[in-house]
Amino acid sequence: xxxxxKLVLSRLQQLVATPSVSSTDKSWDQGxxxxxxxxxxxxxxxxxxxxxxxxxxDGRKANLIATLGSGPGGLVLAGHTDTVPxxxxxxxxxxxxxxxRDQRLYGLGSTDMKGFFPLALAAASQYxxxxxxxxxxxxxxxxxxxxxxxxxxxxxxxxxxARAAIxxxxxxxxxxxMHKGIMMQAVRITGQAGHSSNPALGNSALEAMHTVMGELxxxxxxxxxxxxxxxxxxxxxxxxxGCIHGGDSPNRICGRTELHFDLRMTPNGDNEEARxxxxxxxxxxxQQHSIDIxxxxxxxxxxxxxxxxxxxxVTLAESxxxxxxxxxxxxxxAPFLQQLGMETIVMGPGSIDRAHQPDEYMELEQMxxxxxxxxxxxxxxxx
Length: 383
Description:
By secondary structure, the chain is an alpha+beta fold. It has helices at 5-16, 33-45, 116-124, 149-157, 205-226, 271-289, 312-321, 334-338, 367-382, and strands at 49-54, 62-68, 75-80, 99-101, 104-106, 136-141, 164-167, 176-179, 183-190, 194-195, 238-246, 252-253, 256-264, 292-297, 305-306, 326-328, 343-346, 361-363.
């Protein structure tokens, strides 16, 4: 196996040192183009044909499709280039500098998921002089941590195309074939403010919201009995009432209130159907209270994901790793790659338990097995 740990560490150091935070908070949100350009330069030097796809009009955010070989079929090794925001004061070391201690590599994005790219490049390096029967594609995306707009742009463009895709999110090198969807919604109620001494002078948005919250909790119980999947630790869809705002004074009838909730459907459920059912129930409450109620999406939905247990990719992954493909609670870009017609799994180095927190790290012991594993997939799908 051709593998240079020194080169992997050098590349990861450069990636970690290149900030690429994506966030719904505009004060944090950055572009990922410098990371994309860095990856594109390395891959071009390796002989890959590189295509940079702008995701935003100003070009600050982009995807990279790098292809070795040509023709139909092949394998995609995919990952996102952005990271979550960070609190530098809570880190023991500089989050934008790769630090090795205790057989771990510390740095922002080390495990989620900049660390995957140098290992994918190391796996690919053995085949640069080998005629590929089907192409090998390295895919790097934007904005996975916020809007998934990078993956959405790929699905809209209808590329890349291949037989199979592996998304290198941190799973401790165990295959994942299923995750829940994510739908974040805002319930906005507009009533009529008035003096609290006379209820007839107004129409309380807060009292209507009380009814709404009760209905949402009832719906949550119904979802738990309607849908169940034992592969998940939490086997049923979850609905979380996350935050609420409304009113301005105890002596005024509340004229407006807003509730945000998060709904995570299992793959045997459907985001749009669930949302439509919530909306129907809200409109019934609106009529009951003679009040205006709207349901608005806070972010675009992420569909649930499931790859068939008996698919070629899942069967191969289970054989190579010795682990049965599982389900996870976090969402990924998998459903969007699946929309492109590829069998898709999620599997990469590091642990999701280390992601999105200070002192994020990837274990050194994960690196060599990851390269070896990826090479086995390349040999199956590309040679």
